[in-house]
Amino acid sequence: MTENSSWTKKILYTDRPADDRSRMRAVANNLILHLHPTKVPAPALRWSYTWGLGGLSAMLALILIVTGVLLMFRYDASVDRAYTSVQTIETQVLFGSLIRALHHWSANLLVITTFLHMLRVFFTGGFKKGRATNWTIGVVLLLVVLAFNFTGYLLPWDQLAYWAVTVGTSLLSYIPLVGQAIADFLLAGPEVGQGALRNFYAIHVAVLPALLLVLLSYHFWKVRKDGGISQPEEGEGENGRSPRIERLTTIPHLVQIELAAATVLIAGLLLFAIFVPAPLEALADPVHPPNPAKAAWYFLGLQELLLHMHPLATMILAGIGLAAILFVPRLDKAEADIGVYFRSGKGKWAAALAALLSVGLVPLLVVVDEWWLDLTQMFPTWPTLITNGLIPLLLTLPGLWLIYALLRGGGRLTHSEALTGVFTFVFVSLIILTIIGVFFRGANMALIWPF
Ligand code: HEM
To answer: Any residues with CB less than 8 A from the CB of 416 and at least 6 apart, and which?
Structure first.
């Protein structure tokens, strides 16, 4: 008998279900052991390794499904009644406002936890040693989470919803070749209207939940199939034998941690949702846009880039970024550094340097481009596709290569460590551009000082 199956027996059967309570416990244990292996390596249980981000994302997805189903009983996806149905939920349905706030804040938090979970997996090399497929599934999951938020944004049919989706779909139409077709399909008309609301609702409550459930089930199954989550390589032990990594039983060790994390998350969310209701602005007015008309916050990094670059160049850059993230397992094939944050101590310094460079450089470039540099005025006869598109693109891509080359420094850092530095620069830059878009852009999208 294998070690695992003997443990399964011990956990499930030594505690024979003598009464209803112990029978329930056996059923719960059985369910848990379908999701988790019977034993997990001790290092994988360290809070500071995963920060519980995958589990928190899963918990948030569950909260979203439950609160979403409840909202569906009262929400009406018609241009004439959507706004009033949300008002009714807010004011006349028992706990309606709380359920809507829980749905709203969980959705926003899920974007953050999923993004941070991706960063955790990237920085610990959690995509290595046979985990490339799960990384790819994860990238699709991130896109599904963004699509959930984007389609949900329109449903309240208030000014915020209407104009954020108008800006968002116009961003989509800049995607070369397929962008306009995707925007036309989503809008089902010349502008955001009944067709768009119907499509967004169908995608939000049917297509995306089905996709999420299939992808998440596969994601979890694959974590088990890949031998549990990543961890550092076992080193050389005494007499040339590898020291065994201590393995702890899932019940109670892992389950205790998961229960504690879920309790803290639910309590925190509940408190937040009680005191901060989900926003609902005035009824959508297709004639009077707010100033500034901003996309949803998670697309503001992209909108910020569009203020500095030609739309085609922006989309090419975003496409290259997404492709680079998808191909991370091919770009970084070294396996020995798996499970070590930033690959090594030197990698940690490289990442810190790259982050500092981004914090200094990105705001500087934004300010210089806003107030001093105008390539279209400097070269008035050149097409804007060159002055605002090709030139910034040709400066950005070699710029990233330069960071890689400087970090690598003729073998000072390994390829894996230098690549981690470049990705850190890109991730931090995206965060900074988003912060600038959220807080530092005012009327007419001009730079403002928010405090
Ligand atoms: C709704 C979104 C997601 C949920 C609920 C989710 C959930 C999880 C959970 C529970 C784990 C186990 C370990 C942990 O908690 O960190 C995990 C591992 C993993 N996830 Fe996700 N995930 C999501 C999105 C993503 C994304 C966006 C990526 C990457 C682009 C990704 C890639 C991975 C990989 C490669 C592993 C194995 C990591 C390792 O072995 O260290 N996941 N995920």
So the answer is: 125, 332, 334, 337, 343, 347
